[in-house]
Design goal:
The protein contains 5 helices and 4 strands, in the order ααααββαββ. The longest helix has 27 residues, at 9-35. It is an alpha+beta fold and 132 residues long. Strands 1-2 form a two-stranded antiparallel ribbon. It has a two-stranded antiparallel sheet with strand order 3-4. The protein has helices at residues 2-7, 9-35, 41-60, 66-77, 102-114; strands at 81-84, 92-95, 122-125, 128-131. It comes from Lasius niger (Black garden ant). Keywords: Cytoplasm, Kinase, Magnesium, Transferase. Residues 44-106 form the GHMP kinase C-terminal domain. This is Mevalonate kinase.
Length: 132
């Protein structure tokens, strides 16, 4: 992104504006989930849509890479959304809604590991990310 900002500042600004708008939607959706007293599928489906949209933007501007795009495609084949984390293009995450069955997680992890992806399961809560 830094290189793009230097070479094509208008394009970089366009990307940042699009990602910012999606990030605001993600924050609003996460707030809805946090304020809810029960686990509801609709906000997680909405969150997955925003995550996919964000990753598609990054990919369309060449800010992803084929391996991460492949990981996102695998996640999508299981009904999940994944995206680049922003840490130098080396890390990504896949959102697993609370209703996700252990068997689905196992199958997804097995397929990712078979394609040489490292899998680390984490939980995100009010106190941040916790590695299981």
């Amino acid at each position: 992104m830094a290189e793009l900002k230097h070479i094509r500042p208008e394009t970089a600004n366009d990307i940042l504006c699009k990602v910012d708008a999606i990030t605001q939607k993600i924050c609003d959706t996460v707030r809805k989930i946090a304020e809810s007293r029960s686990i509801q599928e609709a906000p997680y489906a909405e969150l997955q849509e925003h995550i996919e949209e964000n990753q598609q933007i990054l990919s369309s501007y060449g800010l992803s890479n084929p391996r991460l795009d492949d990981m996102c495609s695998i996640a999508k084949s299981y009904g999940f959304a994944g995206k680049l984390t922003g840490f130098g293009g080396r890390f990504a995450y896949i959102l697993l809604p609370p209703s996700t069955q252990k068997e689905q997680i196992k199958n997804l992890s097995t397929e990712l590991e078979a394609k040489d992806f490292s899998v680390t399961r984490t939980n995100v809560g009010c106190s941040g990310v916790k590695i299981d």
